[in-house]
Amino acid sequence: MRLLLVEDDNHVAAALSAVLARHGFDVTHARSGEEALQALVPEGPGFGVILLDLGLPDQDGYEVCGKIRKRTGTPVIMVTARSDIRSRIHGLNLGADDYVVKPYDTGELLARIHAVSRRTVPEDAVTGDDSAALLLGTVRIELPTRQVSVAGATVALTRKEFDLLALLAQRPGVVFRREQIISEVWRTSWEGTGRTLEVHVASLRAKLRMPALIETVRGVGYRLVAPAG
């Protein structure tokens, strides 16, 4: 995935670019708002995600976010030291897809990058291309239309049930920490949400009629066990 990193601190940008590169990202570094806007040329290759620092030397980061949103629908994650709720709401109202407060955990940032990129509808969605679906044995998950079927029979899921299933199905066999799931699906912290996660997992198992599909890893979280056939 190509990623646009908008950060005026070269040391921070270099360290973060190295981490992102190790995780398979092709990073373009813009040191100002103007550089960021120039990188978003229509004829150029698109970016999967934009990481936007708000403390830029030439323009306010909020202003840059507004200009970016007028040019492209690429997901924007604001990265800033401003932690108050009014700043977060303002950023989201301007069109940001997520908001990460410094100092942040690199693992959480990576999880949020993957989360916002998954919410972007693939260009081939309108064609019904099978690449826009996840196939796990008899389970079929249509990402663009948010439909799930088992052996050809449609299963009605709530929004959060679908988001939870799609998250786990992206990487079958990989254990997702409870905190990570809560952050990506419910967009909140772990406190007070643990019981909600357990209820949704139980509901998915029942609706799909596959109790073994989602395995509980005691003390850690959950993982999806791909069924055979």
Question: Summarize this, please?
Answer:
The protein is an alpha/beta fold.
What does this structure look like?
The protein has 229 residues and is of the alpha/beta class. It has two domains: 2-117, Response regulator (Rossmann fold), CATH 3.40.50; 133-224, Orthogonal Bundle (Arc Repressor Mutant, subunit A). Helix content is 39%, strand content 21%. It has eight helices and twelve strands. It has helices at residues 10-22, 33-39, 61-71, 85-93, 106-118, 159-170, 178-186, 194-208, and strands at residues 2-6, 26-30, 49-53, 76-80, 98-101, 133-136, 139-142, 147-150, 153-155, 176-177, 214-217, 221-224. The strands form three sheets. Strands 2-1-3-4-5 form a five-stranded parallel beta sheet, sandwiched between helices. A four-stranded antiparallel beta sheet has the order 6-7-8-9, with helices on one face. Strands 10-12-11 form a three-stranded antiparallel beta sheet. Helix 6 packs across helix 7 (178-186) and helix 6 packs across helix 8 (194-208). The longest helix has 15 residues, at 194-208. It is elongated, with a radius of gyration of 19 Å. The model is unreliable at 121-130 (pLDDT under 50).
